[in-house]
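Lab meeting prep.
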Amino acid sequence: MSRLIFAFSLLSCLAVAAATGKGRGYSETLEANTQNTIPRKDKLTHIHFFFHDISTGPNPSAVNIVPQRSNSSTYFGMVYMIDDPLTMEPNLSSGIIGRAQGLYAPASQEEVALLQAMNLVFTEGEYKGSTLTVLGRNSIFAKVREMPVIGGSGAFRFVRGYVLARTYEFNKKTLITIVEYDVYVWH
């Protein structure tokens, strides 16, 4: 019986060693190449566009998915899902270059400040098929808001940068908001 236990223990140790491969555990060091690493010389890119947040009408691009559950003047607790068009100029008919897809939620009980999590999905131009991921605080009544770019895909793999957002127009009657975005990224 003791030989059986010894043999089982030995086989278990060999199986664990084979599964981890050369004792590296769950990670490995890769050689740098264009498929898996950032190029040695990054370039700084500035992208300028307008974000159209449309929460009314027959085809809204921002939909309330969690209603406000308190009497908060800051709308604390609401959540909106977005699929907002991005255009080259303030006019929606100026040409859609992509979509802002994600969500935002008022996350402050003291001021109207959003937690904004979104992917900027580029559908036209040089960056068609690439995305940028933005996650940050958007204090919507501030003249300029800065949010970090925390990731990306395609041409923006290994990206780092930030977004500057400025309200271009807010229509109280239609609840349509146009926000001018300046994105600066190293990639």
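Slide two material, second protein:
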Amino acid sequence: MLRWYQRKLASRPLMTQAVTTAVLFAVGDITAQQVVEKKGIEKHEFARTGRMFLYGGAVFGPAATTWYGILQRSVVLRNKKAEMLARVAADQLLFAPTFIGIFLSSMAVMEGGSPQEKLNKSYWPALQTNYLIWPFVQMANFTLVPLQHRVLVVNLVSIGWNCYLSMINSAK
């Protein structure tokens, strides 16, 4: 399975990352609904899972893949520790705040709601929680993980994160 994934990453990196991200975003939502919210299959909101799948594959996967490539090419310093810290700072000060806003706005649009209302309600709590988790994940990611696997690492950690985002997005 890992060799197959490696071949797909080499031959079609953006598509592979997008599909992987779509699946893992959906897994995060399924986890939120079944493990945390304990809805059961009868009350599972399949449209909600579909929205997470769509956002993960069409928006976040391609954006994160492109972003990590930009960081790899653009943030290059002699001191590798300073390089990692600069990449984490860029990620957390530019990418994270932007994509939390894009996520919440996209979900609001797909749900037929108001993006502004969703942002007013959920943006700051999500961003604050982001800062408790992701800087540490990204320090390890930028230090230990090869570029082609960074989105996968983020996606695996994101099962829990997407569970949280799905719950914060769906809170009434």
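Talking points for slide two:
The chain has a mean pLDDT of 93.
Helices lie at 2-11, 13-36, 46-74, 80-110, 115-144, 147-170.
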